[in-house]
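Notes to self after the Tuesday call (sharing in case useful).
The group wants a holo model before anyone commits to mutagenesis around the pocket. I volunteered. Ligand is 6-O-phosphono-alpha-D-glucopyranose. Logging inputs and output together so the record is complete.
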Amino acid sequence: MCGIVGYLGNKNAVPVLMQGLKQLEYRGYDSSGIGIIHRKKLKIVKEKGKLDQLERKLSNNLSAQAGIAHTRWATHGGVTTENAHPHVGPGGKVIIVHNGIIDNYSTLKENLKKEGRVFLSDTDSEVVAHLVEKYIDLGPEQAVSKALSFLNGTYGLLFLFRDHPQLIIAARNGSPLVIGIGKDEMFVASDAMAFAGYTQNAIFVDDGEMVVLSQNEYRIINRQNNVIDKNIEELTIESGRHSKENYAHYLLKEIHEQPESVFRAMGRGGRLLPDFGTSLLGGLNMEKRDFFDIRKIHILAMGTALYAGELGKFILESLTRIPVEVSDASELCGTNPIVEKNTLFIALSQSGETRDTIGAIQEIQQKGGRVLGIVNSVGSTVARMTEGGVYIHAGSEISVASTKAFSNQVTILSLLALMIGRTRDISLSRGKELVEELKNLPGKIQSILDREDEIKIMAKRLKGHSSVLYLGRGINHAIAKESALKLKEISYIHAEAYSAGSLKHGPLALICEEMPSVFICTSGDYQEKTVSNIQEVKARGGKVLVISNYADDNLKALADEIFIVPQSDELLSPLLTVVPCQLLAYYTALALGRDIDQPRNLAKSVTVE
Ligand code: G6P
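Result:
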């Protein structure tokens, strides 16, 4: 979703900002723009579409020592050049870029219009430029402060002033913002990735803070108008890590990285304690004896992370015997959630910046609940606001559709389940068995990836259809949901997941030759019943693709296509069955010529509600 970046320094700001925008491209956007002070005037260049369209519009000899830039993901107002950022105040004295939503913008806009001010866009953001300019005679800092006092909603905002070319002001409320401190240069962005390669030194800005930046200095001012000190953190952001290497898409690369990323989630083995049949997750800020008090676990997440949470429910309940609830974080906020003393809340988020997840955490925390974060992005908002947690160490995930982060989230939930479970319910021998299974996962995932060509054949079966059903029971139902989401996201084929048991209660009516079904059918408790469901579909002329971990002749005869993953403990089998499903979505989308890494309308990091 929207990315913002600002630069002040000795370098030409234009290429630095363009590089920053490219580093933020993965978040998803539909238009972009850049604003600089050029020959004592504020100059804006913006364009709808991809960044190369903006680049074509920028003349080669454009240079500046300060500038702000933006990638927009439309919320208020269509995808047009006028609605792209930066927006300018009516007198051309200030320009702004904004990430977030100004909830009360229409009232503010009406009032400003009554004063005779003319708006050039349909956005909520433009009111901010007008407000700052209205108060500009107070000086830039006071004008921004005054403007902010009128705003309800979320923002990461950057301001650049015509008459103060050595100054950028930034402000945060609910949308991420980080300062990058270089040598004789300053950066400010919604994501530290924007200044990767320039500096590793960063300060994370918190809600209610305003930042005043010049080339060599920064001042951070809190809500009470006091200048505050904050720690400078050294981040490990590598430059140039955005490389597809030899892969056609980031998505394919990230699917292939899973053996290594799952291994990293296990701390390269260091998070496993084979002798004790358990795991060790530092950072939870909980003693083992605290686990005895947990009466309930409540997981909150969105999108793919939500389905990782649903799988986590099975694993946690099975190993800890503690009831687990999983909530769509966006729904939780509006429902006055029940927060009880002995409930452990877990927020799952790849980016750590998902607005809905952050909103749910805030609501739970203000009711006194304890929330742990399971997060990929180091230093992100969720990582900083939770009482403890675990980094999943998936590495940067660039493709909008999440794959390796999903596997790492499930791996961490499995380690957590093992750690809590061993203090409560499961024996040393069962613990040892699971540690062994976990250790074997990377190799098994690799063996699936080595058979990728088989999936290409399966994908041919799906590409001509407009709708697909994904079916599974128990733990495989959660995989069916995640796999349907993956197909939907990147191929734009409608895909729906049901528990195989609910097939007869409605979806069976859809079965015909034009509606293929993908069954996740693994050996164990649900095997026989799932095979019966496959038979029901076949009896009605439906085509069936099966992802399984066993192959008997009956199943092979029933399936139109079958892919068999290696055997594993049933609880960990989703980490294997998900891989062919990810590849199936990828190759179907590829055959349809889709924009796989940046699917239409979607954003990697959803920073608005
Ligand atoms: C968006 C992304 C998904 C992601 C979801 C949750 O919808 O497109 O890939 O699963 O947000 O994101 P999070 O960063 O909180 O895991």
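Two things stood out.
The chain has a mean pLDDT of 95.
The chain has three domains: 3-234, 244-449, 451-596.
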